[in-house]
Amino acid sequence: MIQTVNLQKLFATEEVETTALHGISMDVRDGEFVAIMGPSGCGKSTLLNILGLLDNPTAGEYHFYGTEVSRMSERQRAQLRKGSIGFVFQSFNLIDELTVYENVELPLLYLKTPADERKARVEEALTRMNIMHRRNHFPQQLSGGQQQRTAIARAVVAKPKLILADEPTGNLDSANGEEVMKLLMQLNDEGTTIIMVTHSPYDAGFAHRIVNLFDGKIVTENFHV
Amino acid sequence: MLHNYLKIAFRNLWKHKTYTLINTVGLAVAFGSCLLLFLTAYHELSFDNFHTNGKNIYQLYNQTGLSNKGVPMPAPLTTALKKEFPQDIKHIVRVVSGGTIRYGDKSFSKTVRYVDEPFLQVFSFPTQRGARPESALSSLSSVVLTETAAKDIFGSENPIGKTLSLQDETGWKPFVVSSIVADYPDNSSFRFDMLVRFEADPTYQLNKDNWDDSYHTVFLQLADNVTQASFEQKLRGVVKKYYAGNLSNLKRDGSQPDENGDLYSLRLLPLRDLHFDPEVGTAEVPPVKKSYPYLLLIVAGFIVVIACINFINLSTARSLTRSREVGMRKALGALKSQLFLQFWGEALLISLFALTLGGLLTYGLLPVFKQVFRSTTSFSYFQQPAILISLLIGFLLITFVAGGYPAWFMARFNTIKVLKGGISLNRTSILRNTLLVVQFAIATLLITCTVIAWQQINFLRKMPLGYNEDQVISIPIRGSINGRQMLRLLRDRLSQQPRILSITGAYKNFGRGLDGSTVTSIMGFEHNNHSVQSHWQIVDYDYLKTLDLRLIAGRDFSREYATDTTTSVIINEAMAKALGDRNPIGALMQVDSGRAPLQVVGVVKDYHHESLKRKIQPNTLIMDQGWPIGYALVKIAPDNVPATMAMLKKTWEELDPNSTFQGSFLDENTDRLYKAEERLSQLFISAAIVAIVLSCLGLFAIAVMVMTQRTKEVGIRKVLGASVLSIVALLSNDFLKLVVAGIVIASPVAWYFMNQWLQDFAYKIDIEWWVFVLAGLLAIGIALLTVSFQSVKAALMNPVKSLRTE
């Protein structure tokens, strides 16, 4: 499903050049749950952004479902991203001016899903994430856990094959964090590929495989059975 | 999706009420002011555009060398022109004013114009009733009335075929109403209540072959294939043929030729330029300089620029609050173009709302505006499709720039950075700072111009005119009693009144009285082998005494000398200089070859008998009984003025029940001469206030944003021991630098423009350095006040709290 070959990412300002990724080659299979770990500044989020087609690598190859995407324009990446990748962030990134329902509906609007189907899918996602009763609330009126459940509902509503989660439990207490991880597990069990960046060994324990990064390189890979 | 965009737009506007209010109110005020200024400018520019033949109509004027232009023409000139150029001239129309109307036993003070027969064919004043334009003035005893005049005179009666009387020097004469035309529109330079045939003017028979008496204006409608330049070229031949004597005199006196090498020329002024030529334009609608309406449009543009800058600055500064939305929408697959359209659409929404509000503001304020600025513009101009379309294009352009830049700015946000919350407002955004500088430069420019214009107007107002302006009342004599007779009656009735100090009369008024007319009469003659030109004022006894004119040589007119009502004259210093005699007293002036020479009996100190825009010209006072007295001048005691005015009015109306009392003080009359300048400076003041308020509104909002951004910095500085004052200074400093930059840019520009403007005045102030300092300090003060409210608030914040907010 996903294959990267010798991915490089260089951030250059006028004064400094920083290499964030240093030859990352990895495969992620369909239905796999991969956790990426490592200390701060090791390149976890940079890798996740490239995998999520939010950014291009400086060098190397990235095959997304057999298509080489590393040289695509932003416009092409946006088209590909739409509907095939769902995002979950540490800070939820819900739009404050939209209700829970409207936030979850947003991906379907960009996919131009017909109104009836949109309604059914949003309600299904909300019910699944156990947030249906809060559908007309605004994000500020929700607890952290509820906000993250809404964000997950938004990530899954378009039924993407891949979900990228960037420290999804980072802003949550342990009970809410546990709940979120269970939801992700459940999605994975149903066949959704999940790549998650985390600092938490406990959360990483839910994954099939843990990739450890250090200074932009993969140092170890641990498999759970 | 549109539904989603609208929903989020409204929720955002509602959530950030201060921002929405500043943006909407700012734009609405700007749009409203702009529309008002646009209406005024358009009205001025539309003057005399309604005549169907307009592009072929010209007013004839003469120019002596490089000196002033003159419009009065001698009666035989038109006959000569018709004879010389029968193919080139389609119609020729002479115009002269005069007369009082009587119907039954009632007199009416109306504007009567003696015009040639084709007047209504040349000019477009549509017939409402009666004879058509071609035949309305075919008879010498026919008159044409405007709708309003007909209603005033005849009430509900049918005026067609009715006989009314018209008074001239020879008495009352009957005329029959042949036609009623529509009232002249507000943007017409021609104003009249009644038209009479030119040949019916009593002076016509005396003057029809007299080349020496120029007393009427001439309008030409040229044939379609004749251009102004080609006809003016032909007019050079006319001057050579008919003005040979005049030319040789000018040559002898060493007159300077004009740019074509002509000492004297006849020229054409296109009708569409009539309103913009102060020397040729009509007196009843004071012409304005052509730059005036354009100046208004520039000021309107300035105001819109300021409002747009606010919009751009506020929107870009506020865009941070939407950054997460942008990031998320991008992550979900939104394209830049989609985001641009979304945000631009929001700007369009605000602008549309502001335009509606501005339109309502214009509509509501127009009556007040018209009254305050004495404008005759109308909201109905917006019904013209061309105006509507150009306004729509202007509006879309404004929203495209003001809303487009912030939309483009937001659409370009880096997805990864905004999702991580990594974008912050740049404290030293070059664009924002440049825009703030431009804003304050415009505001300072307007403040400086306002101060200088106000100084000049004040200078003119306060300048001693050399005569008593605040105690003398001038009353136009327009009723059924002739001027000299009225003067006698007034003297009989009022000479015993202690509050009436002195009474006299004159042919011409000072400044512009309540009758709205100004007259200039200039006589030219040969004196000791050189030409002399002098203003000619017909006066009555006690003129010097009433006006407190200072006699510096000779004596005043006196009843003891019989010659004083025939050949004695009193001249001013400028005239004494023009005559060139060592001792002007006793000098003889041969003005009219057929009559006895006039003798100078007195010289008065120069006084400003004309507008202060011109240097004092030679002036001659004469008691010639052949000329009419048009104005009674009454000097009153300074105490209890309202009672004296009421007594004068009562006496006047008792003496002539058919006429209206239109007395006004001379200082009010001279003030009216500077109406255009006053109007301009008032408009400038208002525009400057709007500009300043809008600039401050923008600055305030930006200050709020920047202070919020710097909360953490303030907290840290306070923890490290900074005082409140030092923090206020630090925070205000960034903004003050921008304001100072604006002042530095604006000052030389203001100096240049105002210096140009002052060139129009013969008597003017010097632009002083302190004006710029004052305007600068004012701008700094206002800006400081705006910003310091926010900086003090930030500086007083508890550092524990401000650090926590980060």
Q: Can you walk me through this structure?
A:
The complex is a heterodimer of chains A (225) and B (806). Chain A is of the alpha/beta class and 225 residues long. Chain A has a single domain, classed as P-loop containing nucleotide triphosphate hydrolases (Rossmann fold, 3-Layer(aba) Sandwich). In chain A, 33% of the residues lie in helices and 28% in strands. Chain A has seven helices and ten strands. The longest helix of chain A is centred in the C-terminal third of the chain and has 16 residues. Chain A is globular and about 45 Å long. The two termini of chain A are 20 Å apart. In chain B, β21 and β22 form a beta hairpin. Chain B has four domains: 169 residues, no CATH class; 223 residues, no CATH class; 172 residues, no CATH class; 183 residues, no CATH class. In chain B, strands 1, 2, 3, 4, 5, 6, 7, 8, 9, 10, 11, 12, 13 and 14 form a 14-stranded mixed beta sheet that branches. In chain B, strands 17, 18, 19, 20, 21, 22 and 23 form a seven-stranded mixed beta sheet that branches. The mean pLDDT of chain B is 86. The two termini of chain B are 35 Å apart. By secondary structure, chain B is α+β, with helices and mostly antiparallel strands. Chain B contains 24 helices and 25 strands. Chains A and B meet through α2 and α3 of A and α1, α10 and α13 of B.
